[in-house]
Design brief:
CATH architecture of the largest domain: 3-Layer(bba) Sandwich
CATH class of the largest domain: Alpha Beta
Order of helices and strands: EHEEHHEEEHEEEEEEHHEEEHHHEEHHHH
Low-confidence stretches: none
Structural class: alpha/beta
Subunit structure: Monomer.
GO cellular component, one term: cytoplasm
Largest sheet: 7 strands, mixed
Number of strands: 17
Subcellular location: Cytoplasm
Number of helices: 13
EC number: 1.14.13.-
GO molecular function, one term: monooxygenase activity
Shape: globular
Helix content: 25-40%
Length: 371
């Protein structure tokens, strides 16, 4: 029985790893030409009950602990005028409830745990169905079970549902400050060891320290249309001018906060944020299923990667428990995943609603410190 996994992200690799642990072969088809073909993004906080649970099932929890950053759990929450609302510093002996890890390091950990032949690089999916995958280069491959782990713009999803991602009203810009401790020690001290978050007026800035010394800075503009980047006046072709325009858009913000933007290098990446309907389900169909963002794309508030990893692990366990009955395994997996992902989606939507509110910083403080 041939298992084809489309997409070599965290969820697809977790599935391949758990299957490998249980002696079941699978092939991961990834469109990137190699593991280093493109950047993998910033840090992830892996939750003990979801993402870390997946790594335990994959037999990789000790290796994860070796690359996880306990101090990455630190957080500072501020208002745009610079008022510090919350500062949480992680003790050296604190449990690893939500440690941070570099996404690229985690992906490498999963890749290194698989046989070299398990991932077929340079295989961009063109279409799928009736047991056949067709790739953009003209090649093809057969499958008995197809798992769409191919992200927000999944091509496999259409085999199960007509649902498509919808813009949330959030448009984000990613920037970064390399080697911040050496180049801007004052800003490094302000950001701290983990996450620095400023919320208010339908805007947010988050600064996140990475393991390589880079601080990634994310600016978000809420309640904005899908074509907002075209009308915002941000000249993305001129990074210095784009940074100045971004600072101008943060009217009334403390100059110490906007200094983070001025210190960034010329890497500026616009991102329009979309989600799938919360609680999306579909009738179980033999031979195909979805995991991760392909199944339940959520706002980027800390749930997505954890859900994808756990999806992969639990689907792998279900297939290992029913090696001669893939339809039963898929139905068992989907039944649990729909409930779990629905709950995570509702919580993510609640956080997203807080972020869009006029008094977002105070509401977020209440979220972190209920009662």
């Amino acid at each position: 029985m041939t298992i084809a996994i489309v997409g070599g992200g965290l969820g697809g690799l977790a599935l391949a790893r758990v299957l490998h642990v249980h002696g079941i072969d699978a092939v991961v088809y990834e469109r990137d030409s190699s593991r280093g073909a493109r950047g993998q993004g910033g840090m992830l906080d892996l939750h003990s009950g979801t993402g870390q649970r997946a790594l335990r099932e994959a037999g990789l929890i000790d290796q994860f602990h070796a690359i996880a950053r306990r101090e990455g759990q630190d957080m500072r929450l501020l208002e745009p005028d610079g008022t510090l609302l919350l500062q949480e510093d992680t003790p050296d002996d604190a449990p690893l409830e939500r440690p941070e890890v570099d996404r690229a390091d985690l992906r490498d950990l999963l890749l290194d745990s698989l046989p070299e032949h398990a991932v077929r690089w340079g295989h961009a999916l063109d279409s799928a169905g009736d047991g056949l995958l067709r790739f953009a280069d003209g090649g093809s491959a057969t499958y008995d079970l197809l798992v769409g782990a191919d992200g927000a713009d999944s091509r496999v999803r259409a085999l199960l549902t007509d649902a498509r991602p919808v813009h949330t009203g959030q448009n984000a810009v990613e920037l970064g400050i390399p080697d911040i401790d050496r180049t801007h020690p004052d800003l490094a001290a302000m950001v701290g060891r983990g996450n620095y978050w400023v919320l208010g007026n339908g805007q947010s800035l988050s600064a996140q320290r990475n393991g390589d010394g880079r601080v990634r800075v994310y600016l978000s503009f809420y309640n904005t249309p899908g074509d907002w980047f075209a009308t915002s006046g941000i000249p993305f072709g001129d990074p210095a001018a784009a940074r100045m325009r971004l600072i101008d858009l943060l009217t009334g913000w403390d100059p110490r906060i906007t200094a983070l933007i001025a210190a960034c290098d010329d890497t500026i990446v616009p991102r329009s944020i979309a989600t799938l309907p919360v609680g999306l389900t579909w009738p179980s169909r033999p031979g195909v299923t979805l995991l991760g963002d392909a199944a339940h794309l959520m706002p980027p508030v800390g749930q997505g990667a954890n859900m994808a990893l756990l999806d992969g692990a639990l689907l792998g366990l279900a297939l290992a428990a029913h090696p001669d009955d893939f339809p039963a395994a898929v139905e068992e997996y989907e039944r649990e995943m729909f409930v779990r992902a629905g709950a995570a989606g509702r919580q993510s939507a609640h956080v997203q609603e807080i972020l869009t509110s006029p008094d977002a910083s105070r509401k977020m403080l209440a979220f972190f410190q209920p009662g």
